[in-house]
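Hey, resending since the last one bounced:
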Amino acid sequence: QVQLVESGGGLVQPGGSLRLSCATSGFIFSNYALRWYRQAPGKERELVGYITNGAGETGYADSVKGRFTISRDNAKKIMYLQMNSLKPEDTAVYFCNAMQYWGKGTLVTVSS
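The structure tokens again:
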């Protein structure tokens, strides 16, 4: 069955960096676009960005553009989210998504 497992979350100070990973199994990873979403406390889930299959083109929400970078390793079947210059408003549970499948999320807390 399809599985998506996020990792790498934690507590970081404003201005710091984290790299999230999304390990996958159960589908042909290289054939599908992948997405990162996040959900802050009391808010709706929002799209952070995506990476296509094939050329691996990326797109980002305006709120993270220039600070976050999505990449993928098709051999390892892992998607990454490199987050730099983190702000308190980036605090959220981060989820990866492929097709209709979701991981359980990993919590990122940005606080001094």
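The chain is about 0% helix and 50% strand.

Sorry for the duplicate.
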